[in-house]
Design brief:
This protein is an alpha+beta fold and 317 residues long. Helices cover 26% and strands 45% of the residues. It has one domain. Helix 1 packs antiparallel against helix 3.
Amino acid sequence: MRRAAGLTLTALGAFLVTLAALLRLWVPGQVIKFPLNEYSVTTLTGTGITYFNSTSLQDFRDTRATEIITIEGNVSAGSASTAVWSSFTALDDETRKTLISRQSRVVAFNRRTGALLNCCGASVGTSAGVRQSGLGYRFPFNTAQRTYQVYDVTLRRPVPFRFAGTATIHGIAVDKFVDRISRVKVGQQTLPAQLAGLPNQGDVTLPEYLTQTTTYWVDPLTGIPVDMVLRQRTDLESASGTSRLVLMAGTLAQTPRSIRAAVAETDKSHRLITWVQDLGPLAGLTGGGLALILGILLLWRSVKPFEPAYDDEMIDA
């Protein structure tokens, strides 16, 4: 009986130790990935926003604006290694209840590293020919405190987000990453000269310049940005570099409610990762080690003591 129990416990212990090793070394790479069925809504607001309405040809100031970024995963387009997410961004004038701008995008990316891939219907707006590179909506798992290249839709190229310190948001330790764009030409626009304050008659074509600072606070374990602030100014300038018309200027910051939702999502991911990487292997190693020790002890105690094959009476004779 002891021998049978010892063999069973020894086998169980060996299984649990092996399972612990798999949970620590192999399972995380198979389980800890960005989801295919992502759905999230991020809301940013700002006051004192200035923008030019190209439809009504009016300049609006001191506006309250709301930007809503909706991200939804396309499960059927993804795979074990690649996720495909679509996003729609709408910036609204809350003061006048009108749309300021809107933008759509489809990204395909590596489910472990977050690196963008040019496949699976990736596009910016209606253009499927744009090649996207760098990171998209997420930083990699176990984000390091270094510079990351993140794709900028306006510039159509990746820009450096530099590590800029740490903070704590609702109990989660986060890393701060900042990108600064200073007066970069992003295009040109043609409009009536008088709108740009120029004396000549007819239309005039002016270059468009962007100055922008984007700040992310990222949970390093999951790569999820839990807070964001966007400071932007876009001007049409004359040949001398003088601003002739402000197309957009102001600061948008993530709302407290949106931050709490991002933190709640991060907490869920933390629990899964902690179980797979730490608690599961620890439980398996502890339980397996105890079972091995007990099984070996039972096997040892079940061994019969050595008895000679001859009889003492035979020797006396």
